[in-house]
Every structure is written in C-alpha cells, then in structure tokens.
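Think of the structure tokens as a kind of shorthand, similar to the way a musician reads notation: each symbol stands for something richer, in this case the local conformation of the backbone. In the example below we present two proteins back to back. Begin with the first one, reading the sequence and then the tokens, and try to describe in your own words what changes along the chain.
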Amino acid sequence: MTQTYPLVLRVQRVGSNSRNRYDEKIIEKAARHNLREIKAELLENAANAIDPRKSHLNFVLRGEGTAAAVVQHMEQLIQAANAKILRKDNIRGVELVFSLPTDSTIDVRACFEDFLNWVESHYQGIPVISAVAHLDESAPHVHVILLPIKDGHFRGSEIMGNANTLKTLRRNCVEVVGKKYNLVNEAPKTGNDKKRDLEFANELIEYIRAEPAVLTELRLRQLLSEIFAKNTDKLRSVLANQLRKRAKRHKATSFVGVMTKKVKSLKSDFVAA
C-alpha cells in the first residue's frame, strides 16, 4: 500500500506573527528572515527553530536573493500598478507556507517547484515577489509571498478569503500537486482525537516542569518554537504581565540599567559654619 502524507498549507498575512502587523517595513523584515539575513536568528542558542548548520541547504525558487532587492522589485511593481496604501491596516503581503513531512522521501525541490507553478496559475495576475525554501528547520517548507495588488488596488483580504476559501484552496492543491506526491487532506479531528491531544499536551507540560533540562535539546526547541509562533497573540495576552516584569528585571540587571539607575542624593557629612 502506498504511503500517504498530510498536505500542510497555510495562508496568512505577512507579519501575522509580528508584534506590529501594520509595520511599513514588514515585507523587508519577512524577506530578511526568509533569506536568513538576521544574524541573531542564526546563533546556536537563538530562541527559534532554525538550525544554522543547515541554512546553506535553503534555496530561492522565485524572486531576488537579498531582502533589499526583493523590496526594490516590490516597489517597482507597486509603482507600475499605480497602487497606493490607503489605510494603515491594508495587507501589504499575503504569505503561503507549504510544508512537507520530515519522514517522507519526496523530492523536495521538484515538489516545491510544482507547488509554485500551481500558485502562479491559481493566483493569476497576483505577483509572486519571493519564494524561499527552508531546509534548516524541523520540516522542509517554502514561504511564498504574494503582492496583493488587483486592478491597481491592494486587496489582501479578498485574495486571502475566509475559512471556506482555504478549504477550497487545499482541495485544489491536493488535486493538482498533492496526488503526484501522495499528499492528502487530513480528515477533521473527532472529539476523542482532540481529547487525546489535550491529554498529551498536559503530560508534556508536566514532564518539562519536572525535567526542564530537556529544553536544551535542539529538536524539541525547534518544534515548540514553531507551535508557539502559530499562537503568539494568544500567548502574549496570557503572559503579558509576566513578560513585562521579566523585561523590567532584565533592564535593571543589564549594564545599561545599572549605569542609568537613579540613585539617592547623598547628604553632606558637614554643616556649613
């Protein structure tokens, strides 16, 4: 029996995991991340899912090889379309993230190229300004950034669609790309499946509390970082107070914090005659 794998496809606004999703430079920042230009992310002890020892395996499928060149090309396209950002909350980029399972024998480059061809056919007229494949994280995946301009206007929300749009998109991707590589849509989880997942999550939390040293394992940190990255807004809302307190403590104990800390004025040891 031929082994099948779940098709994993996300569609999101560029910067959906950023603290400032309306950042004017969000495309540049996303491109810098995708093209591994942020040195802090490539440190061995960085709090992310990247294994810098494998970053040389990443490759560009569409667009330029530097963030600056990606932005320059984007600005040229915007100018040619005579499009303008009219509102702060206009979506500046739509991102598709297509992932493959870690244990598959799929030809990654061929599969990603077929996926890009499908994207360009499905989103006809919507420019792909960057597509970068990452092989330095827990699972091979490709980030595709679309410039959401249609009829001279930014129409990110329309291009992204809603939950039903995403279901249709995934079904179409399975038909055109998935069948060639034995990728199928996952069956929706039942109540028992969700209950088992929650029980396992609670067991994992208790295990990490009892054995915190397990977090030094790179593989586990990568997986947890990817999971947290998908739920940053919820985590920030729950941990807002704790994160603020931690930031204050860090500032107080840092060199800058110590050197700029206010001190009480010293009283003179003598009295003028």
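Once you have a description of the first chain, move to the second and do the same.
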Amino acid sequence: MFSFFVAGKYIKSYRKSRFISSISVIASAGIAVGMAVVIIALTVLDGFEKVVSEKIVTLNAHVKITGFGNRNLPSPESLIPEIEIKFGDRINKIEPFISKLVLIKSKNFSDGITVTGMDFDGLRRNIGAYLIEGSIDSLGENDIIIGRKLSEKLRVKLNDKLTLFTVYGEEIPSPASPPAIDVFRVAGIFESGMSEYDDLNAYIRFDKASEFFGMFGRISGYNIQLKNIDDIEPITEELQDYLGYPYYVRSVFQIYQNIFTWIDLQKEPIPIVLGLIIFVAVFNIVGTLLMIVLEKTKSIGILRTLGATRAKVTSIFLLHGFYLTLIGILFGNFLAYMLTLLQMKFDIIKLPENVYFVAHVPLHIDINNYLMISLITALISLIASFIPAYISSKIEIISAIKFD
C-alpha cells in the first residue's frame, strides 16, 4: 500500500512539472501509436487471409480432380458412386464440370476467358452469393453468366448477345473440323471482388458445355466439397493414391499456393516491426523514469530516511512505469479499434483489385491480437522499467538529501 500511495502522489505531481508531464505523455503516446500500428497490421492481414480464403474456396471446390496435362476424363457415371462409397463419410458433394478456353466477342470487343459448365447446384454454390444481376434458376440453354469486370471490358449488359469461339472436341481447327461457334445471351453478372475471377471466368449450363465443346460424354474434372475442410490434405493424398494416373488431385490450397504463401509472407515481418516499435517505446519509458528519478532524488532521500527500504523505492518506480505503460496500452487498443471501425464503416482506403485480389481493405477484429500485443508490451515495458527503478534504490541517503 505504501508503494501505491507514494507512486500515486508522484503521478499527481505531474501538473507541477510541465517538462515531466510532457515527456510522460510522449512515452505513453509512443506505446499507444506503436501498439495501434501493429494491431491494425495484424487486423488487416487476418482479414485479408479470411476474405481471400473464403472467396477462393467458395469460387472453387475444396478438392479438384482433373486429368494430367488437362486431358479430358471419361464419363463420370461409374467413378462418382465409387468415390462416394470409398470417401462418402467425409465428402459432402462431388460434381463433374467442363472447363475450356474460349474467345468471347461482343460487337466491338473480344477477349480470351475460361468458360465452365456446371449443374445448377454447382453454379449456386460457386457464384450464387456473388450474383448482382440476373438469376441462376432461369439460366437457359444458350445463356451465360459473366463477371462484372468482363462485362465492362466487353461493354455489355444483361440480355446482350455474345459470340463464343472454341476448339470443338480435341481436333485442331481446319476446314474439315471447324471451331465451335455459338451465340449466348448474358443472363447474369457476378462480382466476387477478385479481378482474377471477374475478368477471366464465365459460366454456362453443364449440358450446353458438353454439346458446345464436343465432349461426347467426357468431362474436364470433378469438384469435391468436404464436410470438414480440416480433412482437405489427407483426403487429397488418399484420392490421388486411390485414383492414380491419369487423375490429378489437388486441394484448393495447392492450386492457389502462390496466394496463400504470399499471405503468410506478409506476416513474417510483424515480429520484427513489433520488436522495433516496442524498443522505441521502452526507450521512452526508461528515459522518462530516469528524468523522474532525477527530479525526485531529494524525495527518495527523505523516504529512505523515514525508513523506506530499497525494495520499496524500487517498487514505487516500477509502479510508475506500469502506470505509463498501462495508459499507452489502453489508448493504443482504443486507437486501433476506432481506426478499424472507421475503415469498416466508411471504407476510407481502397485497393487496386488487380494487385490485391480485393477492392476494399479486408479487416478481421480478433481479440487475441489485442491481448497478445498488450501482454507483450506490458511485460517488456515492466522489465525495462526495472532499470531506472533499480538505479533509484541505489541512491545514497546523504547524497539524495543534499541533491539540488
């Protein structure tokens, strides 16, 4: 209680010394700003990982089976029941798909994209949540759903006509084997927020894709949705071992490994940044406490004369350092939280989609980040506070009383 009482008196005396008050504010502000920067960085990285992962998994499947060298696979009639019997307790849905490169052309513009044919359930699951115009349920035989970025590039809108050109079957186009050409109506427009999808992908019905691409009962692969995504790696390995050549089984994390690796790399510098920021903040606290020790030298001598032990004096300045740290931690958490809320509500900072895969800064508030940074900062600051606190306890009584 004695240490708390004296530390409280020292803190209240700030108003009598503008210099000490100013450097104390700077020390706490340094901790607050540093903490806020690190927490916001982690909030952005966690949000980015969450949003990108969700979009990639939603727009694709947990596990994708294709043919080596993108070769076509045989009719799925016998393989699907076989997989369901073998892995049915862990698989939620397995669906065949057909996917080919095509040249798509409007009246004045053209582009190369990937067109995927899926059944209605697959279309609803993959792009249903991102459909901004049109309807999947009313998708006709010669209807197509394209991304918003692609619609802007081709200068088309809902119900406009597009012409698709592609290789028919597996034959090289020639006079004897002309390319497949057909006209499609834009029946829907989706926007995922990821330019890689919105700009390069379009969807049609599975039966139309089979006819248009000349598949003759063959398919491009299978999309598999799992009951538990934690099983994704073992099931991928088991499926590959079970199916063998020419089947090529990959998880969504393997297909988009570059993106997930990039996300992980963004987190690597965080400990270094945190260390540097905390070092600066701790340096401020040590300097502030040393200044306070100099100012309170005579008071320290009087306390020692009245019977205060070295341990008591040390604890007084440790409490002082804890007070400065606590103020910085509270304001740092508050600042990080308020800035995050402002960004989430008003979308102040925008991102180029073609670089970051998303149009807006994704944020994910995780209380664990706040607690972790707060605890690390408090621990290191308290350890650093021990240096000036220990120095204060070593001041000789006579020298302290004479000090002016």
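Compare your description with these statements about the second chain. The beta strands are 63-67, 91-105, 110-118, 131-134, 143-147, 161-166, 180-190, 201-205, 221-226, 247-251.
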